[in-house]
Amino acid sequence: MNWQKQRQHVLDRLAFVPGGTDREGNALLVISTSQVQECSYENLVSLLALLSDTLPPSTLFTVLLDTRHIQLKQLKFYLRACQQALYKKVRQVLIIQPEKFLDQQKINFDLIVSGYTLKTVLVSMHKLSKFVDVNQLPEQFGGTLGYDPDSWLSKRIEIKKWQNYLVEVDADSSKHSLDDDQKLEEFITKLQSTKRIEDEYASNILKKSVRDVKLKEEENSKEGLIKDHTAGVSDFLDWIEGSGEKWLNSLCQVADNVDEAESLVKQHEELTNKTKEIEEQSHQLAEMATRLMAACPQVAIVLQKTREQIRDVAEHFAYRVEAQTQFAVSNRTFREKVAEFIKKSDLMLEKVCAEDGASVKTVEELTSTKKELDDLVNSMNVSFETAMDAGEETVAKARQYSEVLPAEEFVSHIGSSLTYISQRQNRHNELASVKRLEQQQHLQLMTTYGDCDQAIKWLGELKETLHKEYSLSDIDEDAVKNLRNDRQNLDRTAVSTYQYGKQLLSMAKNSERSAMKESSTDERKEKLETAWKELNLAIQNNEQRLKVVESFMATHRQMMERVNEIEKSLRERLRVSGKLNSIVLSTERKRLKNDIEELSNIGNMLSAQINADHATTLQDRQTAVKQISDKINEVMTAQRRMESLIIEEEEAGSSSSGKEDKHSSRKARPLSKVPEEEGGDVSPVFPRAVRLLETNEGIAPAIRLSKNESYL
User: Fold this and answer.
1) What does the record list as coiled-coil region(s) (predicted)?
2) What confidence tens digit (pLDDT) does each residue in 96-105 have?
3) Same-domain pairing of 244 and 367
4) Could you tell me if 293 and 225 are in contact, meaning their C-beta atoms sit under 8 angstroms apart?
5) Are 562 and 643 in contact (CB under 8 A)?
6) Quick check: pTM over 0.70?
7) Which CATH number fits the domain that encloses residue 134?
8) Judging by DSSP bridges, how do beta strands 90-96 and 698-703 pair with one another?
9) Position 508 pLDDT exceeds 60
10) What is the largest CA-CA distance in the chain?
11) Which residues contact 472 (CB under 8 A, 6 or more apart)?
12) Cα separation, 648 vs 650, whole angstroms
């Protein structure tokens, strides 16, 4: 169809298809009679053929010829052209007859004589609607159907352009354009919206051409996909069986150190990344095979086998890569733990072999050194256990993937490493045990030295405590009794401390022999004995002073009891006889007076001793001296109170002078001579010079110091 050559004839409406139909449904073809003289026969036939091709081949035409303004030979020209161009496609030719009767008869006669194969019908203009509805007739025939030759021709030209495009795409798929396809779809939709017969036919032709192009592209695509799939499968298998297998086998080994293990892990990571790409490629090939199986059923069996083969090969290769990678990672962890164990064992060995020299002297330093060694040994043992666990895990990995790994070789290699670190750990522990035993002996010796020094120090502290806290600051029976109890506890503590020090010296001597150290116990033994002698002397001095105080307290108590007894006897005689004189109980009173003087002397000497003890504070010394003085004053006050009874009675009975002179003429004798002169036995000496004397009225207590006993 070359619409460019017929462009002017179409625009001049020489012949056109208005888009209407007759009452039987045949398409209308209008031939204009005003342009016949300007068109050749060949052009008219060509134009009619082009117009016929715009409709489906089965379409029958009803041709409209207006003979009102033409001659008979021109009618023959049109009919012959229609008969040639529209052979067997013309249903009827509606000839609008001229207005003159004679012309009508000529045309009718000529049609009868010529014997055209076309069915011709002469019809007047006003009877044309009998064959064609008014709304299907063009305006020039009194109808209402519009026709725009410019728009109609533009569509035909564009249809031709898209037909040429589809032909080019069919010949060369590289000229396919998505934008053009989109425009073509829009143009087809536009043609269908006009609801004209020729437009619907053109849209159907374009659709069919598009489908044909797509089918051909699909066929070509299937063939190309099959070729691409075959090539992809070949490349895939070549890499797996060639480069991939060599790469994988080169990494199937056991590293002996951390650096080699780290390098193997990195190479396995690279191989893993490549394997992921291979797996992705296998998925793509399998998916392509699945699509080709649906599109090409004739090769579905081959494609299915190929797909399964690809999947099996890819999965097996990926499993082998994963197995080697897992083992490499586990072996790297094992080598790291082994390296850590060796490092810590070396540190522990350095500590064991280090010379202590003479720098470590104190228990704290020895304890710190021993703790450091213990920490290093514990750290080494923990690292050993961790390394053993990592090795066992590595062996388990090798056995887990035994079907794709040389498990026995790997297990043997790991086992030799485990044996090595086990032997190394045993040797280091034995050395550490010897070193710790030596440190323990040294520490025990230093501890014994320290305890012995502490025992000596305790003895000195007990001595100081005896001087400071066991001096008399309160002259009272309860205080003296408590002091005596405390002193006894101190004595027991001193003895146990001394015995403890002697035991420590014995232990130190044994430890020195065990550790083959130079003996230093003699000096400590001398210090211990010196401290004990000083403490023992202080205890004896304190004991003597305490006995003096106890004697003073007992004498004070006895004196108070005697004064009270004598006073009671005097009051009893006064009640019975009604009078008293100076000779009543004179012996007991004089002895009591002398004993009070002796008690005063003892108190004075005890006060002097207390004042001389500067270990006690001044306030405590003053308090003790005051208490001694108070006790002496208490006895003297009681004695004066007793004597006041006789003095008061003598003053009341001064009138009886005779009797008093008789009694007063008696020779006075000292209280101390009375027993001997009266023939009485001397009372035995009690502890602390306490004794009892017999009198006429009974037994009355008397307190004296023995003649051979000092006040201290």
Assistant:
1) 261-291
2) 877 777 666 7
3) no
4) no
5) no
6) no
7) 3.40.525.10
8) unpaired
9) yes
10) 232
11) 479, 480, 483, 545, 546, 549, 610, 616, 624
12) 6
